[in-house]
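Lesson 9: reading folded outputs for more than one chain in a single document. The general rule is that every protein is listed as its sequence immediately followed by its structure tokens, and records are never interleaved. Here is the first one.
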Amino acid sequence: MAPYEPEKDTSEAGELRAGRRKAARYAVPIAVAGVAAATIGLVPALATSGDPDLPKVTAQELVEKIAASDTQQLSGNVKISTDLGLPSIGGMAGGFAGGGGGADRGGDGGDKGSAADPKSKLMELASGTHTLRVAADGPERQKVSVLEDAAEYSMIHNGDDLWAYDSASNEAYHAKGEGASSERPGKGDKGMPQKLPSTPKEFAEQALKAVDDTTSVKVDGTAQVAGRDAYRLVIQPKDSGSTVGRITVAVDGETGTPLKFTLTPASGGAAVVDAGFTKVDFGKPSADTFDFAPPKGTKVTEADEHAAPGRDFKGKGSRGSKEFGEGDLNEPKIIGKGWGSIAELKLPGGQGLPTAGSGDVPPDAQKLLDSLGDQVNGEFGSGTVFSTRLINALVTDDGKVYVGAVTKDALVKAANEAH
């Protein structure tokens, strides 16, 4: 079906970014990288079908419809497919998160952490295709289950409690009150998380925050997702240089809830992220959906115990100290604007990447870094570019990082200009 309207002109783009200036300051690299790193494993995917006959709307009206949507209750089956061009990291997840595989994290636990720790599971979900079951009943009750062969991993938020349970290892992770927030990437360090991510809406909101006059926004026909009639909203860069090709959001015609999110790279090929409902019901889920008690014999790790000194960068001791760089990576300098934005950060200690030889990186993690690295030189000195199909990062030998949804050449140019 042909698009309903031409691309937005500069004045319309100005309307679209009204009220989003603070978020847009961080632009696409931060928005996309943050979503990919923090929530990519907890949201869904499915192909669309059909061309429903819906009333014509403008892109501005559709964006406003998304903003006004207030879906508090839903349940359904979802799927997520992620193809960043990375090697499979399922077996390395424990190494990155500070622990081993499920078996290694069992028993006494020691310093290995918990197999049910959400940070470990997020690493496993950063590639491939995964099936999830989701449910939500307002801001106080959500559940996301990752369905695997003969096993299931679930995160349940019910009031002041956040539980994560891994049936394969029979381990559970529990956070209560303020302790729950530290396990939700992207949230603050105080208070409970508002809700667990469970639909493509959070992806769509992040993409819309980056809309500015470098962006084309238009309605491009209709589709049917999970049996629901939906509009297709297309967001894409106007200028070259970004690794982002286009973002397509299927928006439910009745509720304004995003049902599907697809991000395709400028290089073509399969989507980097394809996330959407396979089945959805906007009715109230049964109250017992959010009940959880650890099965008999379950090893339970409490969040406050897991976050003891030395367990992560926020603890005390040599690796948790300010000297190790607690603040630097959270305060990026933004170079450029829009889809060509690049974040400049500093590594702790003003040095380049640690290596397996120094004992700071697990061998499996070092193999992954080596497989992605591409040595480069410039006025800034020398460094390594790590590439995916979407996000590229240049790590210089003097401890600076340049990252964005841009090409390798753009990163080298930014480093030279900042030198």
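And here is the second record, again sequence then tokens.
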Amino acid sequence: MSNQINAFIFDLDGVITDTAEYHFNAWSELAKDIGIEIDEEFNEQLKGVSRIESLQRILKHGGKENEFTEQEIIELADKKNDHYKTLIAKVTPNDILPGIVDLLEDIKASGIQIALGSASKNAPFILEQLQLNRYFDYIVDAGKVKQGKPHPETFLTAADHFDVPYETCVGVEDAEAGVTAIKDASMFAVGVGSEPILHKANIIFPETKNLSLEKIKSAFNAES
């Protein structure tokens, strides 16, 4: 591993801002419409995965995985997304998680490129709402990849855009699927959240407010 970091690739939900509550509200309402109950514990399984994959997990959870055609599944996913978009229209810079702006400033000051790697097609809109566009050199959303997390394609696509070796990239994630994707991309994984869930990460911070470029660089160099 090189001792120089060439790029940071950030997840959006749960790292830059917390839209998990909006996702949960939109999914639970849709689930209720088709006779399935989901709770917040089940919702953990939906973090970091694509919209269609999330819906398929909900249908399986409710024992209804064979009751809908492919077209109906797409329509249901679109219905969820329409509801979600009305909720995220209320997002403002006040919804940026603690410590994130300082970290982005430090990375920019170091001359390191920054990408967003999100499972959400709404990622560009949310970044705009948060007024964070200026920090990001590239956005990889669900529309740019064929395979969502835990497949590494999201992270590989960002690195390929920057034309940098994968092992010189740092991924920042709060979901197990995301950390798996980073590691499978041969990148350095920064986890934000619970150690038991994110144990595959190279370094784990309990909350975004604890994130530190110096600590990340130090841990990265220690593994170089």
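What the second record shows: Residues 70-88 form the longest helix (19 residues).
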